[in-house]
Design a protein that fits this description.
CATH class: Mainly Alpha
Radius of gyration: 17 Å
Oligomer: single chain
Number of strands: 0
Shape: elongated
Helix content: over 70%
CATH architecture: Up-down Bundle
Order of helices and strands: HHHHHH
Bound molecules: MU-OXO-diiron
Length: 182
C-alpha cells in the first residue's frame, strides 16, 4: 500500500526519469551531429538506463495497487556546448535526481513505509554510480582540454560502452531484467 503522497512522489519521479532519458537522447543526437559517435553511444546507453529507472518505478506503483499518472515530458535543449559542458550539465542534472531520490526516501522513512525504503535503496546506490561516471569523464575531459587527439581517444573509449538494459517490458519488468541479465 502506498500513501497518496508517496504515490504522487513516485509518479513525479517517473516523469523525472523519462525527462532524463529525453535529455540524454537529445545529447546523443547532438554528439552524432558533431561527429563524436562514441559520445553519442555513451548518451544512448544512458538513455536506456533512464528508461529502466522509469520502468522500475512504474512497475512498483502498479504492484502496490496505486495509480500510474503519466504527465507531459518537458522538451530538453536541442543544442549543447562542448563535451565538457555537456558532462557538467549531466552531472548537475544527476545531482538534482539524487536530491529527488533522497527526498522520496525521507518521505518513506517519515511514513514508516518500509517497502518503499527497500525499493528506493536501489536508486540511492545507482545515483552514486551515476555521479561517479560523470565525474570520471569530466576529469578526463579537463585533462584533454583542447587536444583533438585526446578527444578522439576518449570518443573511441566511450564507443565501447554497452547496455545490458532490457528494451522489451511487455512481460513485466522482472522478466525483462532477467532476460537481459540486468
Ligand atoms: Fe535515473 Fe540518471 O538517474
Amino acid at each position: 500500500m502506498l500513501s497518496d503522497k508517496m504515490s504522487q512522489a513516485l509518479n513525479e519521479q517517473v516523469n523525472r526519469e523519462m525527462y532524463s532519458a529525453y535529455l540524454y537522447m537529445s545529447m546523443s543526437a547532438h554528439c552524432n551531429q558533431t561527429g563524436l559517435k562514441g559520445f553519442a553511444n555513451w548518451f544512448m546507453v544512458q538513455y536506456h538506463e533512464e528508461m529502466l529507472h522509469a520502468m522500475k518505478i512504474y512497475a512498483y506503483i502498479q504492484r502496490q495497487g496505486a495509480q500510474v499518472k503519466l504527465a507531459a515530458i518537458k522538451a530538453p535543449p536541442a543544442s549543447f556546448e562542448s563535451p565538457l559542458g555537456m558532462f557538467t550539465q549531466t552531472l548537475t542534472h544527476e545531482q538534482f535526481i539524487t536530491r529527488s531520490i533522497n527526498d522520496i526516501m525521507e518521505l518513506a522513512i517519515a511514513e514508516k513505509d518500509h517497502a518503499s525504503q527497500i525499493f528506493l535503496e536501489w536508486y540511492v546506490t545507482e545515483q552514486v554510480e551515476e555521479e561517479e561516471n560523470d565525474n570520471d569523464i569530466i576529469a578526463q575531459l579537463k585533462l584533454i582540454q583542447d587536444n583533438p587527439q585526446g578527444l578522439m581517444m576518449l570518443d573511441r573509449e566511450l564507443a565501447g560502452r554497452m547496455t545490458t538494459v532490457p528494451t522489451d517490458f511487455s512481460k513485466g519488468i522482472q522478466s525483462a531484467m532477467a532476460s537481459a541479465g540486468a
